[in-house]
Specification:
By secondary structure, the protein is an alpha/beta fold. The strands form 2 sheets. Strands 8-7-9-6-10-11-12 form a 7-stranded parallel sheet, with helices on both faces. Strands 2-1-3-4-5 form a 5-stranded parallel sheet, covered by helices on one side.
Length: 324
């Protein structure tokens, strides 16, 4: 039996198909979090790193190692550059934590095939490199291996909020930046009009599972189109809102709780004329947090700064200079 914690990485934790005797959601001081598992015998403890307050502080991680056997812990990291830095990863290993990943596939692999020190010793920094990195506050990313796949779903919260077009732009820009990516549209075939071999359609869950196996370890962007089992496949889901008066009114007439039901989700304003100064008013009125605000874009353009920024916010390493 296993125990788990979940916070920012809830979507990944939700997909775990293991026996769980206790799960804690939210963010806590380390001592408070661990107190919730007192007197429980467990096989593995899977910890969403963002469940721990001040998780960037390696002294907190050292304290965790003193209380819980690191060999029983799998750490689910987020996309924080500090957490993924060579310094932080080296510190994790020094504390005895050899099992850590940023995604579902990595967690699943480590659960069945745990790392040993031999598996991760190449990530330990030399004393000279460590001191230099700490002194310069350099946060070079560490290559922690495991599955590189990241699956992102796009769902139209307001009608026709542009999911298909956004899939095309995201996939095209990822590939242009040297990050292999594929786009999939559920139940429809609008993407075929782009005549791009990186874009395809799936008509059911079995089609999707087969396609994911075919494409291998690449980034995948899915236009969900009301796909009811999206949480089982997607690491993250972006809910698209076209914030025009008529689209918002239609949405709320259909479901007056549409925004309150999604208040903990990632909301992207798409084809938006809301400027940055108006975002706070929009959030106050709808009681939701805006993850990103995308203006109307020309999908014929091959390099769009706003798409680059969104991809970076999703954790992709897009160069700061323009991609081709």
């Amino acid at each position: 039996m296993n125990v788990v914690t979940a916070n920012e990485n809830k979507n990944i934790i939700d997909r775990l198909d293991i026996d769980i005797i206790k799960r804690i959601d939210g963010e806590y001081e380390l001592k408070e979090l661990l107190s919730k598992f007192v007197n429980l015998y467990f096989n593995k403890m899977i910890i969403d790193i963002t469940s721990i307050k001040d998780y960037r502080n390696t002294e907190v991680i050292k304290e965790l190692a003193k209380v819980v056997d690191p060999n029983r812990v799998i750490l689910l990291l987020n996309n924080d550059p500090v957490v993924n830095s060579q310094v932080y990863i080296s510190n994790l290993i020094s504390c005895g934590f050899y099992n850590f990943s940023r995604n579902f596939e990595g967690i699943k692999f480590l659960y069945n095939t745990p790392n040993t020190y031999e598996s991760v010793k190449h990530l330990v920094m030399s004393e000279e490199d460590y001191n230099q990195a700490v002194t310069s506050q350099s946060y070079e990313p560490a290559d922690i291996g495991g599955s590189s796949r990241k699956i992102i779903g796009l769902a139209n919260l307001t009608n026709h909020a542009g999911a298909s077009t956004l899939v095309n732009m995201l996939v095209r820009q990822l590939n242009s930046a040297g990050i292999p990516a594929k786009g999939i549209e559920m139940f429809r075939q609008d993407l075929i009009f782009y005549r791009d071999p990186n874009l395809s359609s799936c008509m059911n869950k079995n089609d999707l599972e087969m396609r994911l196996k075919e494409v291998g370890e690449v980034a995948v962007i899915i236009d969900l189109n009301d796909f009811g089992e999206a949480d089982k496949y997607c690491d993250e889901i972006l809910y698209l809102v076209e914030p025009s008066y008529i689209k918002l009114t239609k949405l709320l007439r259909k479901n007056q709780n549409a925004f309150s039901e999604k208040k903990s989700e990632k909301i992207v304003l798409n084809m938006s004329f809301v400027n940055e100064h108006e975002i706070a008013d929009f959030e106050y009125e709808t009681k939701i947090k805006v993850f990103y605000n995308l203006p109307p874009l020309n999908d014929r353009n091959k390099n769009i700064p706003e798409i680059n920024d969104l991809l970076r916010k999703l954790g992709f390493k897009i160069p700061m200079n323009d991609v081709n």
